[in-house]
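Notebook p. 47: complex prediction with 2-phosphoglycolic acid.
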Amino acid sequence: MRKKIVAGNWKMNMDVQGTENLLNALKSESLAADVTVMVAPTFVNLSAAKQQLSETEVEVIAQNMHFAESGAYTGEISAAMLQAIGIKTVILGHSERRSYFGETDEILEKKVSQAIDKGLQVMFCFGEELADRKSGAHFNVVASQLKNALFALPKTAWSQIILAYEPVWAIGTGETASAEQAQDMHAFIRKTISEAYDATTAEQLSILYGGSVKPGNAQEIFSKPDVDGGLIGGAALVASDFAAIVNAFN
Ligand code: PGA
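Predicted complex, structure tokens below:
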């Protein structure tokens, strides 16, 4: 079902105390009731965060997971481990995972399929690099990222997918895609899904924008018809900024 969603990707920030402080600050903010709010602290703080938010509507989600069930994968976390602590959603394919940790479309396809099989919801991130945008290849790059990692999924799996379009050149750079650039790409993504599956699947899908979303630009970006919310990095680390973004839908 298409929902308004704002998710905070905390990346490798906030130790146990920092997590507690930030969540306390967030709990004192008022958040629009029609927006699904998610936060993604680091693995070691997921359980504490879940406990701390147990009486709120804010969902705790994971930043990553491995594609295998279990076994000799030192340093990795499985879908079942996330589920055992009550995590229902996992971010996969973030551009930092792709560029610093070598996650290819092929690896991501395995991760997505494992998460879906295990009943997790996937927030799948993708987006072009600056050179792709400059050369005009951005639509093709995005279409192939989607096709390679997702289009082997059966139609039924799409109820477990949220997409997060994050142009790499806009992540953590202070440079945002204009609301028009975001809308153009989101409309293209929806059309691509509609062609690969069907119009209903595309229409029900939540497509988030990510990349330097701040309180000052969120409202304009979220006002676009194919933008269903945001995946927020830096601004998610300041409770009042994150709340302002959650409350930025018209
Ligand atoms: P940013 O990060 O908001 O700091 O640009 C977004 C993201 O990486 O998901």
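Notes: Residues 179-196 form the longest helix (18 residues). Strands lie at 4-9, 35-40, 59-60, 89-92, 121-126, 161-165, 207-210, 229-232.
Next step: compare against the earlier run before touching the bench.
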